[in-house]
Amino acid sequence: MIRINLLPHREEKRRQRRQQFYLLAGAMVVLGALIGVLVSTIIGGVIEAQEDKNNFLKTEIAKLDKDIAEIKRLRSQIDSLLARKQVIESLQGHRAETVHLLNELVRQTPEGVFLRSIKQNGLKVTLIGYAQSNARVSTLMRNLDGSEYLGQPTLVEIKTATLKEMDDRRVSEFTLDISLERPKEEDKVAVAGGAVK
Q1: Quick one: pLDDT at residue 183?
Q2: Computed from CA positions of residues 61, 63, 65, 67, in that sequence, does the dihedral angle turn out positive or negative?
Q3: CATH classification of the domain holding 166
Q4: What are residue 163's DSSP bridge partners?
Q5: Are 114 and 132 in contact (CB under 8 A)?
Q6: Cα separation values, 43 from 28, 36, 38, 51, Å
Q7: Shared domain check, 102 and 83
Q8: Domain boundary at 93, 109, 139, which?
């Protein structure tokens, strides 16, 4: 016997195709969602890793900034210490100047000249004193000009004064500027070399 299918086969095929389409569309949506979640997770991980790197770099930069500040502070301390060292070395190099000044004044002061005051300001020395005559002041100036450690005597003032300590004797009161002459570096080396020999 022949069987005739009276069921609407076309509708059945359409229904099957529609089901396949919905299944396929659902699978695509799920696959798209999975891919979106996967991509989002990967991008989130990359961003988090980059943020970790950035935070690490920030902390290292902060440490380096502290180190740089410490280095600057140490450099300023070194500069300060070097400046102090130079001052001390210059003081060490010139500490005998006062001794030379006093020795030379004792040697070069002629008879009849009395020094009342000696003031030093850097390399300039001001002498105030009394002399029996103006000629004695001239002799003092010539002697000081010929000295190894003193030079450039300049008479600032000379006037007549009466000293009560010397029975109202009339003397010449004078003010004289001289300059200290520091030995040059070659002389220092020569003196140091002579000391070593």
Answers
A1: 63
A2: negative
A3: 3.30.1360.100
A4: 169
A5: no
A6: 22, 10, 9, 12
A7: no
A8: 93
Outline where DSSP puts E strands in the chain.
113-121, 124-131, 150-163, 169-180
Across the range 103-108, mean pLDDT stands at: 81
Does residue 62 belong to any structural domain of this protein? yes
- Average the pLDDT over 103-129 and give the result: 83
CA distance 114 to 176: 13
Q: Is the pTM of this model over 0.85?
A: no
* CA gyration radius, the chain: 52
Check residue 133 and report its DSSP letter: S
3-state SS assignment for residue 21: helix
Q: Kindly state the helix (H) or strand (E) to which residue 68 belongs, with its residue range.
A: helix 9-93
Task: Name the range with the highest mean pLDDT among 61-70, 95-104, 125-134.
Answer: 61-70
Q: Are residues 88 and 102 in the same domain?
A: no
Q: Are residues 69 and 104 in the same domain?
A: no
Q: What tens digit of pLDDT does each residue of 16-45 get?
A: 999 999 999 999 999 999 999 999 999 999
pLDDT(193) > 80: no
Return d(Cα 113, Cα 134) in angstroms, integer: 10
**Same domain (yes/no): 179, 103:** yes
57 token code pair: 């770099």
Residues 101 and 179 in one domain: yes
